[in-house]
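Title: Prediction job returns without error message
Component: structure pipeline
Severity: low
Priority: P3
Assignee: unassigned

Description:
Job completed but the reporter wants confirmation the result is attached to the right record. Sequence as submitted:
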Amino acid sequence: MKLYHHPLSGHAHRARLFLALLGVPHKAIEVDLRAGAHKRPDFLALNPFGQVPVLDDDGIVIADSNAILVYVAKKLGRTDWLPENAEAAAAVQRWLSVAAGELAYGPAAARLVTVFGADFRPEEVIGRAHTLLRRLEAHLTGRDWLVGGHPTIADVALYSYLARAPEGNVDLSDYRNVVAYLRRIEALPGFLPFAETPAGLSAA
C-alpha cells in the first residue's frame, strides 16, 4: 500500500493513524501542498478533488480519509473496528458523518485559519467547535468510546482534529471527558502521534 499524505493534514493523519494501529505495512508519500503538488495532473489522476489522503492499494485507489478507514477495515476483516451488526455499524456511520460535517466545519476549520490561512470567520468556526465539544462531552459521560465498549473507526475519524483543536484557538480545558478520551486513544498500541505545527509556520 502507498498512502499519499501531508504531515499537517488531519485528514491524512486519520488514515495514517488507522494503518499504524492495525500495523499495516505501507509507504507514506508526502504531497507538497505548499508547492501545489495536490493540484498537478499526476495527483489529480489519483484524486480529481485534489485532496490528501489517497490510498493506492496495488492499483485500487481510495480517496477520502473516511473511505480509507472503511476500506482498510473491510479488506482486513476487522469487524472490531467496523462492526457488521446493523445497529453498531449505523452508530459508527453517524460519527463518520460528524467527522465530515460538524468536526470539519468546527475544530478543523478553526485550525485551517491559523495553520493554512483559510478564509473563515474565526469566531464562527470556533463557536461551532465548542458546540460539537459540548455534545461530545455529554456523549462521553460514563463511556470510554463513541460506539460500544472498544475503539472503532469512529474514534479514529474524530481524533486528529480534536487533538489539535487548540492550534485553532479552541480551548479544550473545559471538556474533561473529551481530554480523557483523547488520552485513551493515545494509549492504544501502535498509536501514531499527529505532528504539531511548528511555531510561526503557515502552509498558506
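Comment from assignee: result matches the submitted record. The radius of gyration is 16 Å.
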